[in-house]
Amino acid sequence: MKCAVISDVHGNAEALNAVLHDIGRRKADSILFLGDAVGYGPDPNECVRTLKAACSVLLAGNHDWAAIGLTEKEYFNPYARAAIEWTAKVLDPDCLKSVRDFPLTHRRAEDSLFLVHATPKEPEQWHYLMSLWDAEINFECFDEKVCLLGHSHQPLIIKRFPSGEMVAERGETTFGRTERYIINVGSVGQPRDGDPRACYVIVNEDGVRLHRVAYDIGETQRKMAEAGLPYPLIERLSRGR
């Protein structure tokens, strides 16, 4: 097993293409996508089609569901809502159908992986997993060794020992024989950890490592402005916020 795991592309084709190029260079066996193909960014159709062609697993995120009318737009702040409304108008029928077919969760029994966009607990409620307390609740909601998720746009590795003790790690970790893990893979299209580079992880039987990839942020911002998307969404890309 050598899986690249990506999440939260958010219609950012420049970031997605840069990440896929980097994944190809590292020769991953498969690519798993954890949701939010669309929202915020200027290229929702291109991103949906590219993800379908590249990924063996594709999950739905909250922005995907909002764009197809399955999550109320009032759930979002005004800037995100404006981007979702724009996205819903420009999505091609074939891309709308594709997004409707994305499931909320996926289990890979052969690798003991549980995949979800938000949290194992009530995945359709779009909770955030930001703390060890959040992790303690969610470790009870899956049986696999490793849960991979996105949603917060902030990469994080949480390790749980058989005793129940938990520690947070960043960047990479080696898998222990008895420990279990929740891993936030960060965001390809809109990182929010202060680093504007695209983010993804590679997982194998030994452990997980985070990778950062530079891309043409200015080109994405130019296309967002041309589409009339809200300025705060454009400006934050260059700050990784």
Strand adjacency order, main sheet: 3-2-1-11-12-9
Helical proportion, percent range: 25-40%
Q: Characterize the overall form.
A: globular
Reported for the largest beta sheet, the result is: 6 strands, mixed
Mean pLDDT: 96
What is the beta-strand fraction?
Answer: 15-25%
Which structural class is indicated by helix and strand composition? alpha/beta
Number of helices: 8
| CATH secondary-structure class | Alpha Beta
C-alpha-based Rg, rounded: 17 Å
CATH fold naming: Purple Acid Phosphatase, chain A, domain 2
Poorly predicted segments: none
Order of helices and strands: EHEHEHHHEEHEEEEEEEHH
Count all strands and give the number.
12
Query: Total domains, how many?
Result: 1
CATH homology superfamily: Metallo-dependent phosphatases
- Tell me the span between the first and last alpha carbons: 32 Å
Q: What is the second-level CATH architecture?
A: 4-Layer Sandwich
